[in-house]
Amino acid sequence: MSASKPEAFLLSATDGGVWRGRRAWRRLRRFACPALAIALAVPAPADNAAATVNVDANTNRHAINPNIYGVAYASTADMAALNAPLNRWGGNATTRYNWQIDAHSSAADWYFETYPDGSGTPSGSADNFVATTRAAHNGAEPVLTIPMIDLLANLGPGRSTLPGFSVKKYGAQTKVDPYNADAGNGISAATGGNISNNDPADTGAANSPDLQKAWVQHFVAKYGPASAATGIKYYLLDNEPSLWRSTHRDVHPAAPTYDEVWSKILAYAPAVRAGDPTARIGAGEEWGWWAMYFSGLDQDHGNAAATSDYVTHGNVYYYPWLLQKISAYKQQTGVQLIDFITIHAYNGAPGNDDDSASGQALRNRETRILWDPAYQDPSWYGDIGINGRILNWIPTLKAMVSQYSPGLQIGITEYNWGDEANLNGATTQADVLGIYGREGVDLATRWTVARNDTTRYVTYLASQIYRNYDGNLSTFGETSIAAAVANPDNLSAFAAARTADGALTVLVINKQQGSTPVTVNLANFTPGVAAQVWQINSASQSSISHLPDAGITGGAIAASVPSQSITLFVVPAGTAVTPTPTPTPTPTPTPSPTVSSGGGGGGGGSLSPGFILLLMSLAFTRWLTRSRQSGRI
Is there a contact between 223 and 231 (Cβ–Cβ < 8 Å)? Predict the structure, then answer.
């Protein structure tokens, strides 16, 4: 509702109320205080029931690792605008990246072809990625993927593309690259099945731990060690290895097993350590919830058979088994093989582009898979039958680490909850980041930046509001504190203390359609008189709006948050009021009678100013009366 036409003054037109109301409003604006004018305006009725956010600055305090706000493949401009701390070089194309010839394979994403990434300068595209990341000048770090697969990408004469399933060599296939008729999809047109007799050497060049060690040494020579300000700090061991059997089946058609993946980690992690002893290494890198439990072999054939990885490894699931091996290695050698156990955490439902009412409601609920020990996931994740449909993803992964390999950190190196162009995608992204901070994730990189070639989607802003809400690199606080709500499926909230200025930052996410009255109660914190308000809503889908400050009364903020909106309250620290001690009463002495030195009646030695004014007023009135009687005025 516009402040210039408050409903309190829009009376019926039949009695001239509109005209009188507008005149009254002009008088009120001229003579009354603005706060009173606002108070008199009747707000539009709320669409949803009132909600309460209870913030307690002394409860559940723990550090938020800023590395949870990372992205993947961001440009310099986006790294700067998002103030993102990490930029990941990862995904399917990096599994077979050959740094010596600067080439990669598109794998199953595009007809199993190899492609040059530049002119042939060793590590050229990777070095450019580092430069792109660092050019943001915000302290951001690249996160680079080290291939562990046996065969890297090769190229043909003149750095030409090579097909993994040549039509000329292996016959007609159900689809071919529209730009290269010799590159098939690896599915025989004659049988409808996968071509299995191809030669991996058609596109492959041998990989080895020494080759990857040399790549790390290249980075050390160019940028310094990880311990230096300019060194490369983070490396990840490959990408989704249990899916090599499908994503890279032209060179690795067999389903990876527990033992194969462990042997790769055991070979390549020390190679990275040897190349740069101070670098931080992540491993696991699996594609989703199921892959924490089932190897590639067990994903294909189930884990109940006598020959399954699960059964042949003592009825122990995949990640717990790997963590036990990593811990045993440290006990035997004294060396921490890796620093992070990582996973890719995508939602199982709804579909990526589903913005229907039902899809939005499901997406609002599905963030519970990250943290809720009672939420039964209705998606296909739940259909797998592990833990009675309960994922409780982050606490479960942390519990695995605590039980099997204490001391490791956890990373979520891919996630994307879809619907990027719409407000439901934005509220979900804000919710996910808040959950990562509250639940203690150590590192996260979103896949990828929420934009297309020309447009930054509203979901982009949901990342930005945590790291650069005002365009001056102001951030959500770095110490998580409690922010309790009744139903996070409708309205969720996250809060954090900020050391730099002592402020509290409170993010309120109205996931539902319609406006919602909300009261933010601030416990164990002395606030200032008003909070800054920053917001993403239906009217501000291309930038974060700075709204008028919200008053704080009795340690609480009362506001109405719009439909599907993200509101950040920046609450300054106030000055604690020290009670003034009550003075001890002192008896007033009884005055002694005095004798006036002048003539006339007794009393004090002087006339009071009020009495003098009274005499002057009487004298003036007398003069005025006489002047009128005489006609002088």
Answer: yes
Tell which residue, 449, 390, 461, 383, has the closest CA to residue 416: 449
How many CB atoms neighbour CB 187 within 10 A? 14
The single-letter DSSP state of residue 514 is S
Helix (H, G, I), strand (E, B) or coil at 593: coil
More confident residue, 26 or 77: 77
Which are the contacts of 240, defined by CB distance < 8 A and separation ≥ 6?
92, 95, 247, 285, 286, 287, 291, 344
Q: How far apart are the first and last CA of the chain?
A: 56
Mean pLDDT to the nearest integer, 169-196: 98
Q: Which structure tokens are listed for 451? A: 């934009």
Average pLDDT score over residue span 13-21: 29
Closest residue by Cα to residue 486 from 463, 505, 512: 512
- pLDDT tens sequence across 332-356: 999 999 999 999 999 999 999 999 9
Site of tokens 């961001």: 74
Q: Return the pLDDT at 8.
A: 28
The pLDDT of residue 536 is above 70: yes
Taking the C-alpha atoms of residue 164 and residue 578, their distance in angstroms, rounded to an integer, is: 76
Give residue 178's pLDDT: 98
118: tokens are: 């530049």
Tokens for 270, please give them: 């020390």
CA 620 vs. chain centroid, Å, equals 76
Is the peptide bond prior to 593 cis by the omega test (within 30 degrees of 0)?
A: no
| Interatomic CA distance for residues 371 and 350, integer angstroms | 18
Question: Nearest-CA neighbor of 435 among 486, 498, 367?
Answer: 367
What does the pLDDT read at residue 576? 61
The angle at the Cα of 462, spanning 460 to 467, to the nearest 5 degrees, equals: 95
Q: Beta 234-237 vs 141-146: how paired, if at all?
A: parallel
564 backbone φψ class: left, alpha, beta (φ>0; ψ -120 to 50): left
The sheet with strand 71-72 has its strands ordered as 71-72, 86-89, 141-146, 234-237, 280-286, 340-344, 409-414, 443-444
- When pLDDT is cut at 50, 70 and 90, the band that residue 618 belongs to is very low
Count CB atoms within 10 A of the CB of residue 171: 14
pLDDT, residue 46, reads 76
Tell me the C-alpha distance between 522 and 506, whole Å: 10
Closest CA to 71 of 459, 332, 558, 628: 459
What does the longest C-alpha to C-alpha distance in the chain come to? 135
- Residues 222-249: tens digit of each pLDDT: 999 999 999 999 999 999 999 999 999 9
Q: What angle do CA 124, 128, 134 make, to 5 degrees?
A: 150
Residue with tokens 């359609």, as numbered in its chain: 513
Residue 431 phi, psi dihedral angles, 5° rounding: -65, -45
Structure tokens at 339: 């620093």
Strands 151-153 vs 204-206: parallel, antiparallel or unpaired: antiparallel
pTM exceeds 0.70, yes or no: yes
Per-residue pLDDT of 38-86, as tens digits, reads 232 334 467 999 999 999 999 999 999 999 999 999 999 999 999 999 9
One-letter-per-residue 3-state SS of 216-247: HHHHHHHHCCCCCCCCCCEEEECCCHHHHHHH
Residue 237: name the closest of 135, 131, 145 by CA: 145
